[in-house]
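Protocol step 4 of 5: obtain the predicted structure for the target chain.
Materials: sequence only (see below). No template structures provided, no constraints applied. The aim of this step is simply to have a reference model before the mutagenesis design in step 5. Sequence pasted as it appears in the construct record:
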Amino acid sequence: MAQHHEPNRRSGISRRRILERGAAGAAGIFAATHFQTLHHLAFASESQPNSEQQLADEKAAHDNAAKEKAKAKKRIKSVIQIFLWGGMSHNDTWDPKPGTGYDYLGSFDKFIPTNVEGIQLSSLFPYLAKQADKFSLIRSMTHGNNGHETAAYLMQTGHKPGDRLAYPSVGAVFTFFKREEYQGLLPPYIVMLQAAGRFSEEGFLGPAFKPFATGGDPNAERFEVQGIVNRGVTDQRQKARRELLDKVNLLGHGLASVTDIEAAEAAREKAYALILGPGREVFDLSNEPAELRDRYGRNTFGQECLAARRMVQAGVPYVTISFPGGWDTHSNHFATMRQQCPQLDRGLATLLQDLHERGLLETTLVWCTGEFGRTPKVSWEPPWNGGRHHYGDVFTVLVAGGGFVGGRVLGKSDQNGEKVAERPVYPTDLLGTFYLLAGIDTKAILPHPLGIEARVLDAESEGMKAAGLLDELL
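Step 4 output (structure tokens):
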């Protein structure tokens, strides 16, 4: 008997049923797969740290590595800070960007190798190029602040501007912690030629830690330091004044055993030693060979660098050089750079070489920066006509000596020098490394006249960014 079969009914399942079951199966497979994916991601999120945790771990690793490396370093005895007030362009100097075109380079389209393979500088710095093994460049410095005062405060205190506390600068903090070690005649914190910041450098530490501003001009025939080498008063006349005062000072001689009078006489003798003795001699650059003075450059900045080296030799803990002229080049940028960069190049390069040859670089920190950089893209339109403006997103800092190794570059800006591409460095990271190498505890509490708790650095409680101490340069 013949069997008649309906289409697709051999297994007793209709075509519609097959399609229904297929669709259900696919949905089931998708659901199972989706559940497994979610399950995997859920466990992955528990086992893998998020970006915040990764950044915290990286910071901790940098901090720990830096502290370990610092143990083998000699402590910083003195600091020379070269402050480029106004903010120097990073693209045109120490973070050149070949191939970025006229809108970014302008007329500064030539670059030179250094004595360290792989490090290039602008052609404006031929002397520093020969000393690259003695310094390192931080090309990823950042704080994002474009205001002169607030950016300078950030770079020189490591604290958040606009807070209720006016924190002391790194120079004042350094002087405070070195106050027992330094017993020299010269003031412990000296600024040439005028104060470097538009804020009170001593902050709440008070007048005892205010920098002594020299005034005068070290490139003049006589470096007339205010209060020490006075204009129009010769050494002979000053000595005659002292001798006359000694003759008429009968009260002081008669009460020499009284404690207060004794202290006053001691202070007077120290003042005279500063004005007429070895203290004054530090500022007399005529004691230096003419050839060496020429090497530094016969200009104000070059002779400031030479004077700073003499102060370091005398044991002065902190010296700031405010570059004369400023770098706030909204207009006339390229002409200003052509004038100032050669002076900076020659003076700074000779300073590093001189410190090295005298065995002072290992314990003397030299750092050079402005409060920020300048805009990578040139403003060609009126009224700027080729200017660069304030730029705190990324810029370059030079560090040398004091425990830092030379011949390295830390961090990286992007192809146009507009953003940090690798390893951001914030003010608290930079200054924290300085304090570490000087043996200063960043968690130490500073004396505040109102008893307010204030620490050397406290980025976390202030909501400040930090990426870790600079172990890569130690």
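Step 4 remarks: DSSP finds 15 helices and 14 strands in the chain. The chain has a mean pLDDT of 85.
Proceed to step 5.
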